[in-house]
Design a protein that fits this description.
The strands form 2 sheets. The chain has an 8-stranded antiparallel beta barrel with strand order 4-5-10-8-9-7-6-11. Among the domains are: 188 residues, Leucine-rich Repeat Variant; 113 residues; 149 residues, Cyclophilin-like (Cyclophilin), CATH 2.40.100. The protein has 662 residues and is α+β, with helices and mostly antiparallel strands. It contains 33 helices and 11 strands. About 2% of the residues have low confidence. Helices cover 51% and strands 9% of the residues. A hairpin with a 4-residue loop joins strand 4 and strand 5.
Length: 662
């Protein structure tokens, strides 16, 4: 930390900005007083980074939050730079609200930043055109809220609004009025501002039917998607959304129709959405047919036809169909299940496990629990534990020897309450020893799951076998071990973790320049391609580590195993699941970068736990800002990304030199 504080106090300004950003990433409340003076630095970039760093450092510490809020409020009074005002407003919106008075004060400040106009640029007389809501045109100048300040204030208001919703509070009428004005602004205004303004209104239910209808006419896809996601969107609005030219709007409209109107209005629009293509809309429609439909909709017959295609081509439609058919009519769907149990593609068998769970078919689940693929076994055991309970403990104990971390975690959960402690506890201890010997950072989750089960089922007789884990390299494992032993031995037992030597990365200016000129090209198994660029100035170590893995061919042949069409897709797991990744954690490099559509980030399960898996945002997701590292953004082929389905394989990932800096 001393190196960072020294760098932050040194010239040149770019070094200061980077050092201040790094201090914020330490997330230490005691550093707020160290960071406050940087709000008054001459360089605007340093001031903006200081605002973000203060919010990141303060976290939930009441004293630090108070210091940070007072300092940022003071700075806003005289701040003339629009980007810094935006950063200050966004950071203020992130701070916890400890009283009604603070809530009112914060909201008023955010509204003021989002309303404060200034001359943004001068124009010729011929440039003066129609009035733009929120802007004043004169023959010689444009007076407006500068975009950086407006976007920053709206990002702050979006976070603030979510906090108000959790507290079951709303926004002030003047705030709602301003946000409505921004949503309905002339299409020449920044589309992101309109989308963010609508996002501010949604959690506090301040978007009415009129706003949803009018927003559905917006030229921006993100605004239209949010319009149909509103609880105020009526049936005609959703039916319009189902005909939108953008798939993401149609998907959201279909999802909302299923939740709100399927039971009363029937499934005809859902059946019509299936079509002949295998895409996100079709798969969502198939899933929805598992819900209530009218006889005349022919929903179950549609599912039967789709399920009959198992083993004849793409696996997605039959697999989704069998699960939906079981939900719709279990006994009528039961005869279809055997064909799925022996399907060649493991994804189909994984879905078969879900269907078998819906049928409470213990025999089918037992068969799949012995499958050659660990993801199939995991899906089967997760459900078998609810169907057969501890009658299947021998199946669970056998699976404790699996290599897949997710499977071991599921097994440890299934063994909760087991009456056969004499068999289960030794098996748990053996599994813990085996996973520890892997010396993998990412074994944390299954080892914690095993220790929690040992805590429940074990006894002081196993204390000596646990003592070595007091000095484990993972502080969470060591700490949990200390808790167990303290309970068993009736006296305080301290953890003495011995962390592994951190992996170091030496990056030179030449390395960073090379990364900034490098394009990453993904070629899918279908032959279709998309490209991304590194944000190496914001996440240098993550960019370098990803580039190193790409150079080693790490991602070649892996898949995108998790696809949430109205959120993101995730891939790069050797085991094609959430818990299978590289053996070393990556440090987070969170910052001011927002989680917008097309940005590429690192999947984590808590701070500093990235394991080489990546995700790509399919929509703007500001609620994830400052939580996950963004290290790249898609620059071409976003339509290819949109078309990726669960299990789609990556043929190659390559580093391609670019002649010009992006």
């Amino acid at each position: 930390m001393q190196t960072l504080t020294t760098a932050a106090a040194s010239d040149p300004a770019p070094l200061q900005a980077v050092a201040v950003r790094a201090l914020g990433r330490l997330e230490r409340p005691d550093l707020t007083t160290t960071l406050v003076p940087f709000l008054d630095q001459a360089n605007a970039a340093v001031r903006a980074e200081a605002a973000c760093a203060l919010a990141q450092s303060a976290g939930g510490d009441a004293t630090a939050v108070k210091v940070a809020r007072e300092a940022m409020m003071r700075r806003l009074v005289g701040e003339r730079d629009a980007d810094v005002r935006g950063a200050l407003a966004e950071s203020l919106g992130r701070l916890p609200i400890e009283s009604p008075a603070v809530a009112v004060e914060t909201e008023k400040v955010l509204v003021e930043v989002a309303s404060r106009t200034e001359v943004t640029h001068r124009v010729g007389k011929s440039s003066a055109g129609p009035t733009i809501i929120g802007l004043t045109l004169t023959p010689t100048k444009v007076v407006a809220v500068p975009t950086p300040a407006l976007i920053g204030a709206l990002r702050g208001l979006e976070t603030f609004a979510r906090g108000r919703a959790r507290a079951r509070q709303g926004l002030m009428p003047e705030t709602v009025a301003l946000l409505r004005t921004i949503v309905l602004a002339n299409p020449q205004s920044p589309p992101r501002a309109r989308a963010l303004a609508l996002l501010c209104l949604l959690p506090v239910n301040a978007a009415d039917q009129d706003l949803a209808i009018r927003a559905l006419d917006d030229p921006d896809v993100q605004v239209r998607r949010l319009a149909v996601s509103s609880s105020a969107a009526d049936l005609p609005t959703l039916l319009r959304g189902l005909k939108d030219p953008a798939w993401v709007v149609r998907y959201e409209a279909l999802l909302r129709y299923g939740r709100r109107f399927q039971a009363t209005e029937g499934c005809e629009p859902i059946v019509n959405a299936i079509g002949a293509r295998v895409d996100h809309e079709a798969l969502l429609a198939i899933d929805l047919l598992g819900g209530p439909c009218r006889p005349g909709d022919h929903a179950f017959e549609t599912l039967l036809d789709l399920a009959a295609g198992v083993g004849e081509g793409d696996w997605h439609r039959p697999a989704h169909a069998i699960v939906a058919a079981v939900k719709s009519s279990p006994e009528r769907a039961r005869p279809m299940l055997p064909r799925f149990l022996s399907a060649a593609d493991w994804h189909t068998r994984m879905y078969a496990a879900r269907a078998a769970g819906g049928l409470r078919d213990a025999a089918a689940l037992g068969r799949l629990a012995a499958d050659a693929n660990d993801n199939v076994r995991e899906a089967a055991i997760a459900t078998l534990s609810t169907v057969a309970g501890h009658e299947a403990d021998s199946v669970y104990v056998s699976a404790l020897g699996a290599a897949d971390f997710q499977l071991v975690m599921t097994v440890a959960k299934a063994l909760s309450g087991s009456p056969d402690r004499a068999t289960v506890v030794p098996a748990l201890l053996a599994s813990l020893s085996r996973l520890t010997a892997l010396a993998s950072d990412t074994s944390r989750d299954p080892r914690v799951a095993i220790l929690e089960r040992i805590e429940e089922l074990g006894s002081p007789e196993e204390a000596d076998q646990l003592k070595p884990y007091l000095g484990d390299s993972d502080p969470r494992v060591a700490g949990l071990t200390a808790r167990i032993l303290t309970k068993w031995m009736g006296r305080a037992v301290a953890a003495t973790p011995r962390p592994r030597t951190a992996q170091t990365f030496t990056l030179t200016d030449a390395d960073l320049d090379r990364l900034s000129r490098t394009v990453v090209r993904f070629t899918m198994a279908s032959g279709r391609q998309f490209e991304m660029r590194f944000l190496s100035d914001l996440a240098p170590v993550s960019s370098a580590r990803f580039a190193e893995l790409v150079g080693q061919g790490y991602y070649n042949g892996l898949t995108f195993h998790r696809v949430i069409p109205d959120l993101l897709l995730q891939g790069g797991s050797p085991g094609a699941n959430e818990y299978s990744g590289g053996s070393r954690y990556w440090r987070d490099e969170v910052g001011r970068t927002s989680q917008t559509r097309g940005t590429v980030g690192l999947s984590t399960r808590g701070r500093d736990t990235a394991d080489s898996q990546i995700y790509i945002n399919l929509v703007d997701t500001p609620r994830y800002d400052h939580e996950y590292t963004i290290f790249g953004e898609v620059t071409s082929g976003m339509d290819v990304v949109d078309g990726i389905l669960e299990g789609d394989a990556i043929r190659t990932v390559e580093l391609v030199s670019s002649k010009t800096k992006k």
